[in-house]
Amino acid sequence: MRRERVVAARDKLLADLPVTAEIVRGSLLERTVRNHARSCAKCASGEGHRMSVLTVSYPGGRTRQFSLRGETAPQVRRWLANYQRLKESIEAICELNHELLRPDDAAAGSRRKRL
Ligand SMILES: [Zn+2]
Predict the structure, then answer these.
(1) pTM for this one?
(2) 72 Cα: distance to centroid of ligand 1 (angstroms)
(3) Residues that place a CB less than 5 A from ion ligand 1
(4) pLDDT tens readout for residues 71-112
(5) Number of folded domains in the chain?
(6) Of 11, 38, 56, 100, which cross-links 26 as Cys (Cβ 3.0–4.6 Å)?
(7) Rounded to the nearest whole angstrom, what is the distance from the C-alpha of residue 53 to the centroid of ligand 1?
(8) Long-range contacts of 79-85 (CB under 8 A, 24+ apart)
């Protein structure tokens, strides 16, 4: 039955859920920074330099920004990807659960008529 297929698909998603604590939410941007530290010669010269910045948004429009050192950017890129994968899996499970909320007979009947 439809319901059993949905539950089986949901069980598979749960078993494959890419759970890790190495996650971070936000957007990674490249920016020219000219005032990241007084001791920075490139900033003092006005030339500035490229830095990766992680921007995290919160409800209400508040944002936090984290300037990343060179070696941290690849790590943040991996953590962002981990977050996206986990979020996509959770969303897919929610979509299956929406199917389970529909009345079984009515849904099966209307689908059969359409086909
Ligand atoms: Zn600098």
Answers:
(1) 0.76
(2) 16
(3) 36, 40, 42-43
(4) 899 999 999 999 999 999 999 999 999 999 988 665 555 555
(5) 1
(6) 56
(7) 13
(8) 79/22, 79/23, 79/24, 80/24, 80/25, 80/26, 80/28, 82/18, 82/20, 82/22, 82/23, 83/23, 83/24, 83/25, 85/18
